[in-house]
Amino acid sequence: MEKQTAIIIPARYGSSRLEGKPLLKAKNKYIIQWVWEKAGKCKNIDRVIVATDDERIFNACKEFGAEVEMTLKTHKSGSDRIAEVASRHPEIGYIINLQGDEPLIEEDNIELVRKGVVEDSGADISTLVRLIEDENEINNPNLVKCVFDKNNYAMYFSRSKIPFERNIGKCNFYGHLGIYGYKREALFKMTSLPQTSYEMAESLEQLRALQNGMKIKIAIVNNVPVGIDTIEDFEKFKSLVES
């Protein structure tokens, strides 16, 4: 049986900066609906599933026709949430973890993540980075930086400026975008492993994979999908789609 590729969208109601954001509406559509519709337009994807721990989100997704599944409330990360859903579907061989608060992500970017994990036999996980040139962004701990080798496998992710420039102008800096592709076995392996020292120090889950020898394939994109983290972000998105 051919392995399916699924986009699983983790969506929770609680958020420290913008509670209930999946159910905010722009142009009479929920944010989670915008993301689900974008995912549904992607080529080479067999199904799209929303994974939530909240009945309000579950019911809203049913209302607009999404495939949606309830998950435990005890999950500490989106990866744990999507792993629970994937565990129920042995037919799914590749999983893309698409954030439920990024309605502006481009379909081509999602396709790059899919290709990274489906077409590269050496990759356990795939993700995206973008070139950053603004010094404020390079030094901003909220923007995660990534260094990778000549074969485009991640070497490290950090909130710090990496690499350190002893010699100015010798390298580029890349910012990480929070979308992941997983081979099925890799997702279950990563989510079953205990937290590692680097992960706990930086609060970056992907470091658990790297510290355990897993390979993360990197693709470089030119655009910056803006996530909805604050009410200001939502108002910008709303004005964009309603104009």
Number of strands: 11
Taking the alpha carbons of the first and last residues, their distance comes to 46 Å
Strand content: 25-35%
CATH superfamily of the domain at 1-105: Spore Coat Polysaccharide Biosynthesis Protein SpsA, Chain A
Verbal overview:
By secondary structure, the chain is α/β, with parallel strands linked by helices. The chain has a domain at 1-105: Spore Coat Polysaccharide Biosynthesis Protein SpsA, Chain A, CATH 3.90.550. The protein is 32% helix and 26% strand. It has nine helices and eleven strands. The strands form three sheets. The protein has a seven-stranded mixed sheet with strand order 5-4-1-6-10-7-11. The longest helix is centred in the middle third of the chain and has 12 residues, at 107-118. The relative contact order is 0.18. The mean pLDDT is 93.
Can you summarize this structure?
By secondary structure, the chain is α/β, with parallel strands linked by helices. It contains nine helices and eleven strands. β4 (47-52), α2 (55-63) and β5 (67-70) form a beta-alpha-beta unit.
